[in-house]
Amino acid sequence: MKASASAHSKTPFKFRIPTAENLVPIRLDIEIDGQRFKDAFTWNPSDPDSEVVVFAKRTVKDLKLPPAFMTQIAQSIQSQLTEFRSFEGQDMYTGEKIIPIKLDLRVNNTLIKDQFLWDLNNYESDPEEFSRTLCKDLGIEDPEVGPAVAVAIREQLYEIAMQNVASARESRMSKKGRRGFEHVPASKVGGASVDLVKLFGQRSSVVR
Q: What's a BP term from Gene Ontology annotated to this protein (predicted)?
């Protein structure tokens, strides 16, 4: 039986991007001595960190980039993975939300501008499969377009997931604040006031 929207919104889930595979969208834009390297792809956060260095070395070798790029590529990937992992295990709230995904990107000679709806509660969704279907329907043959579209979708879903974590955190802090306020006995508040008067007297000062 499908849960109601209110049940979804009140029940916290552990952080993850609402897709079948919980992959990290990685975007690189590195410039060294006038030479620039740009790329975008996904990464499995469960892979060992040693794979980052292997990937950086292979990329520099395959593209014949200066050796200095290896360190920068590895550091950029590692930084983005660290940020993603910092959200893992944290609570997030999801409701029955259908959100618009907007695409506006150029890949080689292909310009993609599109907008469509995405179900945030569908954890079986597959941006890569969706992108392949989109390219097929539009007659796009460039093999680099599909992966670029998938990364763009995942970036937007990742951003929304981070916002949901922030919302859950704010809700939790708000509830703690209300509980703290409601459980402070009036007598204790008055007692604290008397103690302050004893310590500091009746004088008061205002700093402007």
A: chromatin remodeling
- Residue partners of 9: CB distance under 8 A and separation at least 6: 93, 94, 95
- Domain spans of the chain, in order of start: 14-170
* Long-range contacts (CB closer than 8 Å, 24 or more residues apart) made by 77-83: 77/26, 77/28, 77/43, 77/52, 78/49, 78/52, 80/24, 80/26, 80/27, 80/43, 81/24, 81/26, 81/43, 81/45, 81/49, 81/52
Quote the distance between the C-alpha of residue 165 and its chain's center. 9
C-beta separation of 32 from 76 below 8 A: no
- Side-chain-side CA neighbours of 4 within 13 Å: the count stands at 3
Nearest alpha carbon to residue 159 among 96, 101, 114:
101
**Distance of alpha carbon 69 from alpha carbon 86, whole angstroms:** 26
C-alpha 76/C-alpha 37 separation (Å) is 12
Q: Which helix (H) or strand (E) holds 35?
A: strand 35-43
Q: Which of 205, 188, 107, 190 is CA-nearest to residue 150?
A: 107
